[in-house]
Amino acid sequence: MRGLMLEGLDLRKPMSGRKIAILRIQTEVLRVMVERLLEKGFYWILPVILSKSTDPLWPDPEFSIEKKVEVEIYGEKVSAMQSMIVHKRVLVSLGPEKIFILSPNIRIERRDRAATGRHLYEFTQFEVEVAYAKMQDIFGIYEELITESIKYVRKHLSRELEVLGRELKIPQTPFKVYKRSELEEKYGASWQDEVSRIFEDPIWVTGIPREFYDYEDPETGEWRNYDLILPEGYGEVISGAEREYEYEKLAKKLERDGLDKSNYKILLDLAKEGLLKPSAGAGLGIERFIAYIVGARHVAEVQPFPRIPGIVPEI
Ligand code: ASP
Ligand code: MG
Q1: Which domains does the chain have, with CATH numbers?
Q2: Most exposed residue of 14, 103, 178, 180, measured as fewest CB within 10 angstroms of its CB?
Q3: What is the pLDDT of residue 3?
Q4: pTM of the predicted protein model
Q5: Residues of the chain with pLDDT under 70
Q6: Distance 240 CA to ligand 2 centre (A)
Q7: For ligand 1, is residue 196 a contact (CB within 6 Å)?
Q8: Tens digits of per-residue pLDDT, 86-97?
Q9: Measured in angstroms, how far is the CA atom of residue 297 from the centroid of ligand 2?
Q10: Ligand nearest to the CA of 125
């Protein structure tokens, strides 16, 4: 893995044409996505990095975190942001009802995750949250962002695609939706890798038992959450959900998961007052999405300063 990265990136030499083509594509993709959301009236929120309240990332079948980065500031313990889920919920409840954030996340993934080609210990999510939205609304938003980005790259950055030797197909919308249980039944425990290789277009997968903040239907027991799985082995690129907003359910689920309620006090207080709005949202892993567009072998190839699990670089 170390060899793979150094091959394309020696930080004491000018960048390769390949690396520069990737950065050009990333620049334009971010512009297309930001412009689309601004046209729809979204507020652009800047990220928070250190907080008492962050995504527990647990429980989640994909959990592979080696440690949570915690530091003391002004005599108080805070964590490096694992995702801004709590902040997103608070914001859309108190003010702007449609927001997006380019949010840097630190997730100290286990070292063996370097070999998946999909994990980084620092990455950036393109986060969206919308008050009163449902799953279908969020599907529509990201389907548009993804297809419009790809169309733009094909139309205006064909030279860069050529440098990269990448043939990029425009996916058909709407993307197909599957239940996790049916995929697991058909493809077994490693269903994610299987479907990522089998399907030619991205697919939505719903009904994934995980963190307390994703909505669980009390009648059916179904989780109204979703992942988007990219084809060609690139795997999961978006996670999101409709959200829990009722105090009793939130409190019960935090207890069920063995989490410290004091880290989620604002969320719980708002819910108790009936001020926490129902919402839905998701986050797209920017580096994974760009890796797919450019056909990278390892997601770190799209980072100017690679953050591969287990490898702490000089810079
Ligand atoms: N961004 C995700 C969400 O909105 C949470 C995550 O990072 O997994 O649900
Ligand atoms: Mg998650």
Answers
A1: 17-171+258-302 (3.30.930.10)
A2: 14
A3: 46
A4: 0.97
A5: 1-8
A6: 7
A7: no
A8: 999 999 999 999
A9: 24
A10: 1
